[in-house]
Here is the input.
Amino acid sequence: MKNCAVFCSGFGSNLQALIAAVNRGRIPARIALVVSDCVDAYALVRAKKAGIPILAVDRSEFKTREDYDAYIIRRLKKQAIDYVILAGYMRIIGPRFVSCYKNKIVNIHPALLPSFKGVHGIKDALAYGVKITGVTVHFVDAELDAGPIILQGAVAVKADDTEDSLARRIHRLEHRLYPEAVRLLVQNKLSVKGRNVLIRR
Ligand code: GRF
Here is the structure.
């Protein structure tokens, strides 16, 4: 059985959806570690409740991002982590980390990439006036929110949507889409050809 580490900086609702999918046997893998750069992230409470080991690392204790990444990589290797699942992790993964886990790091983004990259995907889509937005699960490469796309799902924007109401529907979709993408990943059903991800179902 493969080992996943889930990286979170905040609330951890996607972590919770992944834990539930693992417990239901929908994802045939172990969440062996939850990593956070934020010692008081609620995601860590969720991990503890689920009996998952945690690693909370304060970035300010490291001189450079490379040192911080190197420390995390060492810890992941020690725990024999096969896959890295970013779920609301607010730090950029450096090039060395990306190459150590090539095509083994995935991220979820609350917009239809390549539109609305960055930390305000929901707000920016709403402000732009799009009628359709959604969710993207993608592999992580050296560029922000730019790696090959695994799955996407659409969400219609309503005329009276606020950031909160739209976010609620986006998160609901995330909680279905991410477990499905992680299942495909750990079952080795994904192959990357340039920008394209081929899925064997
Ligand atoms: C999600 O909207 C995800 O798309 C983005 O960060 C948010 C994390 O939410 N990358 P949560 O911490 O999983 O509730």
Observations:
- The longest strand covers residues 29-36.
- The pocket of 5-O-phosphono-beta-D-ribofuranosylamine is lined by residues 8, 10-14, 87-88, 108-110, 171, 174 (CB under 6 Å).
- The helical segments are 13-23, 42-49, 65-78, 95-100, 121-128, 163-186.
